[in-house]
Amino acid sequence: MVDAKTKLLIFFVVVGIIPVVVMGGSMFLMMGYLDSRMTADAQSKVTTFLGIANAVYNEELDDVKRTAVAASLQDSVGSSLRTGTVAADLQPLLDKMVDESEIDQLTVVDKSGRVIIRATTDAKGDDMSSKPWITAALKGQTLLFTRITPEAELALDGLTEQARLDFVESPTAKPTTKTVEKDGMVLTAVTPVMDDSGNVIGAVVASNLLTKNYEIVDKAKAVYGEKGGPTVTIFQSDLRISTNVMREGKRAIGTRVSAEVYDQVLGKGQTYVGRAFVVNDWYITAYEPIKDVEGNIIGILYVGLLESEVKSEISSFLNSAIFMRLIIGAVIAIVSALVVMQVYLRSL
Length: 348
Known about the structure:
The chain is 48% helix and 24% strand. By secondary structure, it is of the alpha+beta class. The protein has a single domain, classed as 2-Layer Sandwich (Beta-Lactamase), CATH 3.30.450. The strands form four sheets. A five-stranded antiparallel sheet has the order 2-1-7-6-3. Helix 1 runs antiparallel to helix 7 (215-224) and helix 1 runs antiparallel to helix 9. The two termini are 16 Å apart. The relative contact order is 0.15.
């Protein structure tokens, strides 16, 4: 027959262990759900941040537009287009505007589409009338867009060195025989110049080269306001031309997007949302196509969170939650055991 001490021990063990087991078991079942939920929250955060990065990108376009419009309203621009003779003060005026607005290209064309002057360079006289956006401006439209500028045009503004970018080996990218990019992707604004009667007498083109220009990606990242926040990249086609993703301590320009993302974004023109390999690690990402004025896909805007950092945060949260549940279970177990013991002792 079991004596009183043994019964008491059995009661104490059973009543003490059950709450701990229940708490531990319920936490184990919740771990998978919490991991999945928190990963989904991180993906949602990245998708939201893609919208923020897009807004910053468009703000930079607006800045380019403001410079173009401001130039179009200058008396020296108007008089030069009306008379056909470039005013003496126009070159220093445009040079100053470029310097103060931190843009790369500022060009004035006459109503035939011929360049009469460029800021910071003597190059002029070339015909831009075949470009549809110049035609639109000479019909009175103001346009904002991103475009691919060929090497020859970049050379007129002294931008070939900035635009040149050697390809870096990217194992997950689509195979290519290309080893260097010489054309440039630029933010562009074009606006008409009017005379006093409202007639179009020419146009102003302002552009900013995105290659090795980190203002947009760093400004977008700074919006997040936290160390270790999302990384941001601008691609020209599949080539990283501006980024704060790092590789061996340097910005990972020259590397290329993975083949999986390429097919979805550049191939199908669709936004890619999900896990992706970025340069040298896995990230939780979102990518969307960048299009030119005619709707052609010419690049990609990306944001992403380093997956290992997200998993580390999740693991830290889960460990804290497990510890707290075990503490609570232990307290409940001890209190329950003491209560049962008191009840049992009174029954003897």
